[in-house]
Amino acid sequence: MELTAWLNDRLQGRRDVVSQSIEQGTFICTVFYLTGGIDLEMLQTHVLKPLLQPYPGQDEERLSDILDHRSFFPTTYSLTQSPEAALDGLLNGQALLCISGQSKGVLFPFQKKSQRAVTISENEKTIRGPKESFVENIWTNLSLIRQRMKSEKLQVEEFTIGSESRTLVLMLYMAGRCSPDLICTIKEKLQAIQTERVIGSSFLEEALDDRLSSPFPKMLNTERPDVVASALFEGRVSLLTDGTPSNLIAPATLLSFMQSAEDYYQRYFFSSWVRILRYLFFAVSLILPSAYVAITTFHPEMLPYNLLISIASSRDIVPFPAIVEAYIMEVAFELMREAGQRIPTVIGQTISIVGAIVIGDAAVQAGIVSAPMLIIVALTGISSFVVPHFSLTLTVRFLRFVLLCISAMFGLLGLLIGIILLAIHLVSLDSFGTPYLSPFVPFKPKLMRDAAGRFPWTRWMRRSE
Amino acid sequence: MHIVKLTARLLMALCLASIMPALLSGCWSKQELNDRSFVSTMIIDMNKEGETEVSTLFLLPNRISTGLESNAPGQKPYVLVTGKGRNVAEAFHKLQRDLPRNVTWGQMSVIIIGDRYARAGLAPLFDFLIRSTEFRLRVNVFYFKGVARNLSKLAPIFERFPTEIWRETTHTKRIPPIQIRDLLYAYWNNLGDGYMPELVLRMNNLLTENKKMPWSGIGGAALIKNGKVTDRFTDEETEGILVLTNDVDELLVTAQMPDDEELVSARLIDIRRKVKAVRRGNQVEIPISVTAEADLVSIHSSLDLSNPSNLRKIERALQERLQEKIHAAVDRARRRRADVFQWSEYIKYKYPSLWRQWSERLRENLVENVKPEIDVRIHLRNTGVSRSNKS
After folding, report:
1. Does one domain contain both B92 and B164?
2. Any transmembrane segments, and where (chain A) (predicted)?
3. Which of A120, A258, A329, B39 has the smallest number of Cβ neighbours within 10 A?
4. Residue among A297, A315, A420 minimizing CB distance to B30
5. Of B31, B66, B134, the CB nearest to A297
């Protein structure tokens, strides 16, 4: 009764653990499982039935059938080496069989997990590409990836992170395509994580980030299995975390945040064009309000005559300085955007109408803000959504305020210094050894095939040797 | 350790490099649009006492309506303010004292100089312009025969602001444009000669407006000699200047056919000119070649246009007409011994020894020993409808 006693001792507070003893003469065994956590029918047909049938031989023979020959139960099962492993397996949803007098337990993988069906990707939509997205179940996610790459080079390594949550993390990469240094670094960092829980992949993202002071994300997160698969083909590493539908890809460069899955499913011509537009509007969303404030307050002579007249006439009745106006509008926009995410869908429309009328029209009519500023803020807000990955959108949203502040203080000169400092910062960044601005800085002409634009597949994709 | 020191020093240098220029600008040089007033035109006159009068045409954003709201009737969106002083700077200072807003010069696009000031000499104005960093150098300069301030009375019917009307005249190359940088260059580098296009003001009876209205149009051009206006080019000569100094895209020329004295009009397209200097002994020849394409607009003569030799006749008539205009401009400049087209520059840089030789009697030499050769080639490329011979 060693293991059984040990377990009973530890599971006193767990009302959800069911233990059932079966006695057949001297052969006493106990089945443990979590209520609602296992497939009871499987347990009955494959475990309980064989146990309850009268055994023709001796107890010792039966024991060696179970433990050594593994021929007793008509299903797959594993033996535990330590009581801790047995407990882990039990809490992980497996059915545990303890035989009196034995230190080893028998684990049956009869987990029944609540699971969402694979649905359409909501945050990274494509028109022509696949629509599947990851779910919370890590094994479903893995199978979604495996369906897209049947190569035996795909390596899957397993980690359990979190002393209490014991979250399963899978590290995927393709052998031979991925640099051993990268694999080593990520492995070491994963093993070094000291935490009690990992609730989502963002825990890992922060734990693996060695420069948290930077606002730029160092890992790409995606809910699309096709994105993960192509990243693996490109020789990157993917981390799947149990219980979260957004999985991580490392290393990530600035470029990879500007690439959308759609780019690869449309013709190269239009993909390249859209990508260039995306870079343009990335810049717009970062600097447009700052440039507007700097030019109108410091350098109005830069504006063409007729444009100046329009701006000056609509600004004439506005009581605030341009920078205050810009901050009011930008903050109001952020507010609406943030509220829009939280508000239940039913009320959402009401709020957006109120927001549009109050902020869009009434504020201008009342002379609180000028119409050009409204146009600038709206254009900036919309362009920030052009960035395909939300984590970079957040960075841009934040940096915009910083740039706005310095350009209100120092004009275009300040804006320029801000951009230079930003460039210096970006150049100094790296993500797991890959320079953040690569392949632009350092310039790698070979990788240009899939950088600013996308060259046709046929020109650069070959069969691997 | 060494590397740490070096990085620290580099960081320090970077910080300083980014902070120092920031001091050049800063919140203290910030000015809201509401606190600025924008000058669109500067008008300079001189009164009978010899005082300089600077008038500036300001835009009034509060009187401009944008979007759908209609303009308040009878309110002009601009205002002319005048200040007097012994020179331009003083006059401007007096003007600024009474203004509630700071004056921003960056948008100024036109300077108009009155006759009396122009004849007294532009040197003080040039001095003011070259020292001031607030202007752009691409400001158009005009001349007005009379008190230039009066030009602001015009009714800008086609545009919102009078400045627009004046600016567009040079933009469309209806008169030879000149910008302050050209004048400053001529004054500092060459002999200080040049020309200024002329604006005129006349009362136009506009039937649709039910009254006579002051109307600003274009006239000839003023001839500047050594920074002073001394003569005036006629309208026809001004067209000659235009062709000589600019690549004109479109110009209508009307000529008389030599045979039957009937009129022929053609639209010249893409007029290109080439000016060179060639030394022949102690003389310099200035070959000027002007080439253009032409579309026939109207012809009264009953020529058979399907006959190429008749086309050549038309071309010849047009060429002679254009040549006349250019000659007229060149002749007036030479009569006045003025280097209006900056030809002296060719000699100065191409034949420096000759230039030194001439330096004693420069203006005389530039007239006596410089021979302009004008060659005009027009190619009639389109005759429109080919009318058959009346038979």
Report:
1. yes
2. 276-297, 374-394, 401-427
3. A120
4. A297
5. B31
